[in-house]
Design a protein that fits this description.
Length: 417
């Protein structure tokens, strides 16, 4: 493979989810960077003894195009300090599926096989996709190990909730392959400077993120809202946590699991989001308003469902809701950074700059919601970063997880100015 390749070391441990790694390898190798078309993803697989019970080395070698690594010690003729060489060659270490056993090893630094030894020697970003029984995941020992690894900068992808192979219901399923691939893609499209310290440039900071829509109910079953998915806000929260921040995520109703290692506050109405965000912002170093709260609410909410029968129409009075970020901006502390979002269908720059000023923001992320590959429901986005001094920065089409890092890069620069 050419030197321009992006090398992913894939560690596979003893979970039934290991069978999915065949498709995971295909998806990883299929990734392309439009800004660097010659850059490819090279996947090397590393199997634990128990992982080899669920997927064969032959399958992985066929799909990756490289021998599969299993043994810590090899014959004298082939001798090399293999775990060190593999660790040094990796741009990213992905362990998927990751069992409770490997989490425990990683947490205490136990290096008794090739994968755990490689992980201990590796300075590349570490991504972990757990898969295990719900009770094993929720056990205090496992959660303590997860907390320790998060503190060191490891990135957890999942697990998801649902029906497990063991027959239980709950969290423990390995995250969807698309989610895992998206997390890797954030590094592939925008590789960061080497070294684990580079993902900790927000260490010690409190970052508050609002995400998703709000709902303003007309009656017990109908409400005013918008199609915000929360994907951008959640990506920002996860990226900020990965980079060392203490993160509070104030989330409207979305179909996304609460991220690990993040304080998530679920809300429904704009007033609820305002109360939670204003309280969290009191000691926040950075506030990112990625939510799309409803701008108007009915003056009255019917106690019972409004019936259509016998009505020629329905009239209601709407009043403006609280401008959450503008209120936070009015109370802005010295040194506090505020990032606003503007989702516009026309006159993007003009309307975004008006919001930038009105919300007392240090930066606004302007989105054109009329494009099909960006905006609320898409996994990708394109945006324009606008600053109070008139500067602007274009962010071309990219996955929202990658864009989250670009926005946080801008935040770090603002804090260091």
């Amino acid at each position: 493979m050419a030197d321009a390749s992006f090398r992913v070391m894939l560690g596979i441990t003893g979970s039934i989810a290991a069978y999915k790694c065949a498709d995971l390898v295909r998806k990883l190798r299929a990734m392309r960077n439009p800004d660097a078309p010659d850059r490819r993803v090279e996947v090397r697989a590393m199997l634990t003894d128990h992982g080899a019970q669920f997927i064969t080395p032959v399958t992985l070698q066929t799909l990756t195009g490289f021998p599969v690594y299993q043994e810590l010690f090899v014959s004298a003729e082939e001798w090399d300090v293999e775990h060190v060489g593999l660790a040094d060659s990796a741009d990213l270490l992905l362990i998927a599926p990751a069992t409770a056993n490997i989490l425990a090893k990683l947490a205490i630094g136990l290096a008794d096989d090739l994968l755990s030894s490689t992980a201990l020697a590796c300075t590349a970003p570490l991504l972990i996709a757990p898969a295990m029984n719900v009770h094993m995941w929720e056990h205090p020992a496992t959660q303590a190990n997860v907390a320790m690894l998060l503190e060191r900068g490891a990135i957890f992808i999942g697990p998801d909730a649902g029906e497990l192979a063991c027959g239980y219901e709950g969290r423990g399923r390995m995250a969807p392959l698309e989610t895992i691939t998206a997390a890797v893609e954030a590094y592939f499209l925008h590789p960061r400077v080497e070294g684990p310290e580079t993902v900790c440039d927000l260490r010690g900071l409190h970052v508050v993120v609002t995400a998703g829509p709000t709902r303003e109910y007309l009656d017990p079953v109908r409400f005013l809202s918008n199609p915000s998915s929360g994907k951008m806000g959640y990506a920002l929260a996860v990226a900020a946590r990965r980079r060392g921040a203490r993160v509070t995520l104030v989330s409207g109703p979305v179909n996304l699991p609460a991220p690990d290692g993040i304080t998530t506050i679920p809300v429904v109405s704009t007033d609820e989001m305002a109360d939670a965000a204003l309280a969290a912002a009191v000691d926040a170093d950075v506030v990112i308003g990625a939510a799309a709260p409803a701008d108007f609410a009915p003056t009255e909410r019917a106690a019972q469902k409004v019936k259509k029968a016998g009505r020629a129409g329905l009239e209601m009075q709407l009043v403006p809701t609280t401008d959450i970020l503008a209120t936070i901006g009015e109370r802005k502390r010295p040194g506090q950074i505020i990032v606003a979002f503007a989702a516009e269908s026309e006159e993007l720059v003009t309307h975004a700059r008006e919001k930038l000023i009105r919300k007392h923001a240090d930066l606004i992320v302007a989105n054109d919601i009329t494009t099909p590959d960006a905006g609320f429901l898409a996994d990708t986005n394109r945006a324009l970063l606008l600053y109070p001094d008139g500067r602007s920065e274009d962010l071309p089409l990219q996955h929202k997880s990658a864009m989250a890092d670009r926005i946080l890069d801008a935040v770090v620069k603002l804090r260091n100015r």
